[in-house]
Amino acid sequence: MDELLGQITTAVRGMWIYRRLAMLITWLVAAVGVGAVLMMPDHYQASARVFVDTQSILRPLMTGIAVQPNIEQQVAMLSRTLLSRPTVERLVRTVDLDLGANSKAAKDAVVDTVTKSISIQTTGRDNLYTLSYRDQNPEKAQRVVQALLTIFVESSLGASRQDSDSARRFLDEQIKSYEAKLTDAEGRLKAFKLRNIELQSQSGLDSAGRAAEIGNLLSQARLELREAESARAAASRQLEMLRAQTGESLLGSAVGIQTPELDARLYEQKRNLDTLLQRYTDEHPDVANTRRLIGELETQKRREMEELRRKAQAAPGSPAVQTNPAAVELSRIYSAAEVQVASLRARVVEYESRANRVQQQLKVAPQLEAELAQLNRDYQINQKNYADLVSRRESAMMSGQLENTSNVAEFRVIDPPRVAPKPVAPNRVLLMPITLLVALGAGLGMAFLMSQIRPVFFDGVALRQLTQLPLLGVVDLIPSDDFRQRESRSLKRFIMALLALVFLYAGGMLALSYLSGLLG
Asked: How far from the centroid of its chain's Cα atoms is residue 368's Cα?
């Protein structure tokens, strides 16, 4: 710390030797600075304030029906992008600021200068914008602000309509594209179903589920067949016992000119045919097979009817059997059992045939199901996108009509473009102290520079350290009375020159402040 203080003290003493030169440089720099500040041209500022009213009554009414753009965000973005180069070039041409610019470089310089001089400020949530411009000519500044205000309003309205038209055109193109995709997906799905029509069911192409369902139906039909056969055997045994007791053949006596077994089978097959025709076409293998079986049963019925008529004519029934209630009831039960057995047997045969076909179809079913799932997925995706696009297009059209029939945002000019009578720049009252500080700094810098160029040693230690030579001795200076008087007068002149400079600056600042107040 002592060494540092010693170095600072040595530097100050060295600078003090060149105080006259430092004061001269300070006065010269101060004079030049004051002249430069006073010669600066005045700049006038023109400004205007615009309020953007976005609180339209239609906005809450059309919520959820039409697409409503964020007007506040659009206006804020417009205010930030208004100072783009194309907009400023348009502004320069409108106000004729480039009349004296003959070359491209000169025009670019004019555009850059105008861009730096324009200011757009906002208060944020209040949607209140202030447009300002500075120029040496107050009339030119006012014209620039007026043109900028016009561009600001026109750009906001034009951009909104242009965005709506672009959105509608884009949606129309996408709808046409997805309409073609949807038609193609429908064609591929239709062709696939026509190729595999025999594999289709009410629940689709789930072959594993159909196989399990048919297996369950086959098991149920076999169980019912066994139950019906057991019931028929029991009825037959009771008839045999009754025949042994009465000595008459009840079964032969009870036979009339009817074929209940064939009638039941025909009824079952016809009902099966109606069910198949509801699900398949006439060319389906199951439909053709059922019709063939119905034809065979009808032929067999005609033959048995003729045979029974002949037997009835040859051996008429016994009155005892016809009058026995037990025999009549057992005969009816036996006939019903015969009909049920025949019907269930036909059902079992049909389910066995279906089960065999389903087992063959299971070999190719996974590939077909995967292909159908892919086709359905493509179709559903295209259909969903198509419906969404159509809905959005209707919303966009309504939004465009809303913009054309009403003003969603209204621009109100709060303060028209005007120029302040007092120049806004340069601030000479603020620049004057700065020039004083610069002058003082220049004087100190010159004194320090001279002390380094022509150094002076104030003690023997510093001289010995610098020269690296032995020091024989030091002779102290004994100042005389004349020397002390000269130093005293020099110090007084230096203080008076410094105070005069400060007072002149203070007086100049007061005068400038007074003149600025008069102009304001």
From this structure: 38
Closest among 135, 335, 152, 158 to 255, alpha carbons compared: 335
Question: Of 6, 13, 1, which Cα lies nearest the Cα of 447?
Answer: 13
Yes or no: say if 44 and 134 are a contact pair by the CB < 8 Å rule. Answer: yes
- Residue that is written with structure tokens 């009835």 in the block: 312
Long-range CB pairs of 445-448, under 8 A, 24+ apart, other chains included: 446/18, 446/21, 446/22, 446/25, 447/15, 447/16, 447/18, 447/19, 447/21, 447/22, 448/11, 448/15
**Does position 405 have pLDDT exceeding 70, yes or no?**
no
Write out pLDDT tens, residues 209-239. 677 777 888 888 888 888 888 888 887 777 7
Give 317's DSSP letter: P
**Token pair recorded at residue 237:** 């045994």
| pLDDT at site 442 | 92
Assess contact for 251 and 335: CB atoms under 8 A: no
Q: What value does the mean pLDDT take over residues 236-248?
A: 66
Reference 357, options 285, 421, 279; nearest CA is 285
Spatial separation of the C-alpha atoms in residues 123 and 121, rounded to whole Å: 7
Handedness of CA 208, 213, 216, 217 (dihedral sign): negative
* Phi, psi torsion values for 52, nearest 5 degrees: -105, 110
- Nearest Cα to Cα of residue 33 among 447, 422, 442, 448: 442
Q: Counting every residue, how long is the chain?
A: 520
Q: At what angle do helices 285-314 and 260-279 cross, to 10 degrees?
A: 160
pTM of the model: 0.43
Give CA angle at 185 (182, 189), nearest 5°.
Answer: 140
- Amino acid letter for position 135: D
Q: What is the pLDDT of residues 456-493, one digit of tens each?
A: 766 666 667 767 777 777 777 777 888 788 878 888 88
Helix, strand or coil, per DSSP, at residue 379:
helix
In whole angstroms, give the CA distance from residue 269 to residue 276.
10
Helix (H) or strand (E) holding 410: strand 410-419
Which residues in 66-162 belong to E strands, given as ranges? 118-122, 128-135
- Whether the pLDDT of residue 64 is over 70: the answer is no
Which residues lie below 8 Å from residue 514, measured CB to CB, with a gap of 6+?
none
Long-range contacts, stretch 336-340, CB < 8 angstroms, 24+ apart: 336/260, 337/228, 337/231, 337/232, 337/235, 338/232, 338/260, 338/261, 339/260, 339/261, 339/263, 339/264, 339/265, 340/228, 340/231, 340/232, 340/264
Tell which phi-psi region holds residue 96, choosing left (phi > 0), alpha (psi between -120 and 50) or beta. left
Q: Which two tokens stand for residue 508?
A: 């100049």
The phi, psi pair for 312, rounded to 5°, reads -65, -35
What pairing do the DSSP bridges indicate for beta strands 410-419 and 44-53? antiparallel
Residue 19: CB atoms within 10 Å: 17
| pLDDT of 152 strictly over 50 | yes
